[in-house]
Amino acid sequence: GGSCPQKNAEILSSQYGINLFLAGLLLTFAWAVHAVGISKSHLLSYLITLMLVQLLWMLWYLGRSCTQRRLIRDKDTHAGARWLKCGITLFAVITLILDSFKIGYYIDFSNCLSPTEGIFPVTHAVHTILQVYFLWCHAKDIIQSFKTLERFGVIHSVFTNLLLWTNGVLTESKHQLNEHKERLITLGFGNITIVLDDHAPQCNCTTTTLCSIFSQGIYYLYPFNIEYHILASTMLYVLWKNIGRKVEHHQQHKTPFKFHGITVGMIFGLIVLTSTIAIVVVYLIQIGRSKIKSELALTMFYLHAISVLALMCTAGVVALLIYRLEDRSLDNSKNPARKLDAELLVGTAAGSWLLSWGSILAIICAQAHPKYTWYNLPYSVLVIIEKYIQNLFIIESIHREQEKVNDDIKTLRVVTISRGSTLSLTPSYKEPYNGRATCDSGGVPCLFKGSIRGRENDGSGGGAKEETSQENSSVMHSASDFSFYSRNSVTNNKRRILKNIAAFLFLCNLSLWIPPAFGCRPEYDNGLEEIVFGFEPWIIVVNLAMPFSIFYRMHSAASLFEVNCKT
């Protein structure tokens, strides 16, 4: 009887959030295209209002939780992992630096900027601090009281962060577009007549040096702000899905991250990360300087990316083959966090796939092909294949059941009968007990079964029979133990390989996040796609797909970190 009202509340709150988002999206679009009567102050006022409403809700929730702190609440052990909280905290700290730069920028241009441009970064900074605290304390909550009100509060927070993410993406994309036009001219594409301004202030700066630092630094910090808001929205969405949920109470094993056993994967991953940073630095220095330097920069980028993607495909195939050799069931229990992870992997991968198919089609249809564009073909094909393989590996990994580990200490009493004497040993084990053990003294394998005779048989049989029985038993137990430990050795080797692959792919995804996040975007600078599709249509496609492609890499890295801890 109670499920119908709650389902209605879920539908109503989701529709409220969607309408909230669509209104903000249209306001953002209207500002971007210079719609009549719409200015940046209108957009910022809308965003400030949404943040203030969310702040009021979070303060109310924190206050109510404080008064009820003695109550035992259900928790979703899969939501709000500690490493995820640490990641969002790091992005939030850099976002606060971005807000301080915006405040400094407003002070320098205060004569010709709207007051909302000064209020917005202050409100955003307060919003960021309180939201990170809220997520640290309550991301795992399963809300069972005031459920209807809480649904609206949480979904409001989800779409507020999505709108802040959209605003950051648009601002950063406009900046990238201006640089992209200058680079295309150096490559010989001089027929671009579209002029887009960057909404620069129409007055002089009070301190020229500081203005230059603030204006340039803002755009280098935007990638972290974008990742912060998308991570916050996903964590809040899981909280929304958990409202009113009934959970099974069972012990969740903690899976801490350990560097032991992943040295090889870390070394190769760090090599890829270091080389990627070097490639990005050289690319940003060389691109746009001259036609020859720009072509060399593009060629260098494609060759490096092709090598990295080929290694990632190989590692993913090896991991999947290991999974095929194992016979382990999948965990199909209800888990909103895991379901969202899988959906985000496939959904955001579509952004890269769209760009890759656009590049492949442009290469096929173009009449002229500069030499560097041919490297774009294997690069685009490998991007598609690598995401196929990696998504399959991650989704299967997070759905695989963990091996059953008995944490209780098994106290085993070893009784050895030897010429009328009894020797008791009590070794303790934390590994799963399968009826076999190895005596600490002498390394003699022992098998414990109900057939062990007690002291009442002492002296009733001959010594020869006892010795013969012990020898036969020892041979049987040695063979059995050898098979058992060999199987364990194979399993440990497989696990070690999988952990190294996960660590390698984790660092590779971080490496591939860096280039597009910091302006190294061959989809902009290649020039071939603009010829085939037209400048404006292709730029629209890139601006829509690129944010999802960037988020995919960061989300994949987070998922692979979880896989490494779980393996």
Automatic annotation (TrEMBL):
Name this protein carries in UniProt: Otopetrin-1
Family: Belongs to the otopetrin family.
Keywords for the protein's UniProt record, in alphabetical order: Cell membrane, Hydrogen ion transport, Ion channel, Ion transport, Membrane, Transmembrane, Transmembrane helix, Transport
Pfam families: Otopetrin
Location (main, coarse): membrane
Cellular component GO terms, alphabetical: plasma membrane
Entry membrane topology: Multi-pass membrane protein
Ranges annotated as spanning the membrane: 16-37, 43-62, 83-107, 119-136, 219-240, 261-285, 301-323, 344-369, 497-519, 531-552
InterPro entries associated with the record: Otopetrin
Lineage: Eukaryota, Metazoa, Chordata, Craniata, Vertebrata
Residue stretches of biased makeup (Basic and acidic residues): 454-468
Subcellular locations according to the entry: Cell membrane
The UniProt record lists the keyword Transmembrane: yes
Record region (Disordered): 454-475
A single GO molecular function term of this UniProt record: proton channel activity
Any single biological process term in GO: inner ear morphogenesis
